């Protein structure tokens, strides 16, 4: 029986692919022991136990980016996190570690290396994070979601997807989605989403232009985010939700989307062939525009700077696009050409290869 330790967390971008891989391991080997290493503060503290996996914790240790008191304390705290993780590896008889980035991954990689435990890495973003850049120096088993991600010895495996997205049939889902959201079967659907927290600039531009968009004959499913203050104008064909717990149905019914370019969003949309106008988050290290690079270069979506997504752009560019169903069908065909539905299987194959290589040494 193999014991796996999956390390990662903090955000949904790390937790969701981790859980997808955990589920696929359990599918393949019901007798396997799957443990998760994370922190008490991250999203994993809630989602991992809900899914039925045991969560082992270490201290949350952001990498210091400036010289201050926290930076001075970091080396000792990091050594402690590595030592605690080494104890988990020994005490639980861990056979292989799988890291997904985030606060827990760097200690897990160094602990595995010092204990002689093989480890594999999954990097969800086109621009890798610090933990995975560190870990990739010490393993030959690195899976990436997007081609061109600059990690040594990496292999494109795609994104491990939630089961409901991995198995989504958009034609079948459409009938259920129409009833679930109260949509009109005779109209095409524009999905607008900025993720669970929303995207204020996207929300405002769409809200200010909603009459123009509806005038094209499309209906709009607008997921604004739980903290949004966008008011519902109560116009026919406009459906506002603060939060959507059935994103599989929203993706299934949509003909075009306007969205941020998070790694999970791009991966889910391309897996099922949903074209999008991607508007990368303008703050941070710019990884979102790289996430969308391949599908945009393939002619499957449109990339637009946040500052350029205005009422003027909607009138001059989006409205003509919505009127051209052939153009949207072409975008959809090109989008699915770069997508992967089997990311979970391909990542677990890589993990199993790491275990096999270790067992033959």
Strand line-up of the largest beta sheet: 3-2-1-4-5-6-7
Major sheet details: 7 strands, parallel
Broad shape = elongated
Question: How much is the radius of gyration in Å?
Answer: 21 Å
**How many angstroms separate the termini?**
19 Å
The CATH topology of the largest domain corresponds to: Rossmann fold
Strand content: 5-15%
Number of strands: 13
SSE order:
EHEHEHEHEHEEHHEHHEEHEHEHHEHHH
Counting H and I runs of at least 4 residues, what is the number of helices? 16
Question: What is this structure, in a nutshell?
Answer:
By secondary structure, the protein is an alpha/beta fold.
Task: Provide structural commentary.
With 361 residues, the protein is of the alpha/beta class. The chain has 2 domains: 3-160 and 341-360, Glycogen Phosphorylase B (Rossmann fold, 3-Layer(aba) Sandwich); 164-336, Glycogen Phosphorylase B (Rossmann fold), CATH 3.40.50. Helices cover 45% and strands 15% of the residues. It is built from 16 helices and 13 strands. The strands form 2 sheets. It has a 7-stranded parallel sheet, with helices on both faces. Strands 10-9-8-11-12-13 form a 6-stranded parallel sheet, sandwiched between helices. Strand 1 (3-7), helix 1 (12-28) and strand 2 form a beta-alpha-beta unit. Helix 1 (12-28) crosses helix 16. The longest helix is centred in the N-terminal third of the chain and has 23 residues, at 69-91. The mean pLDDT is 93.
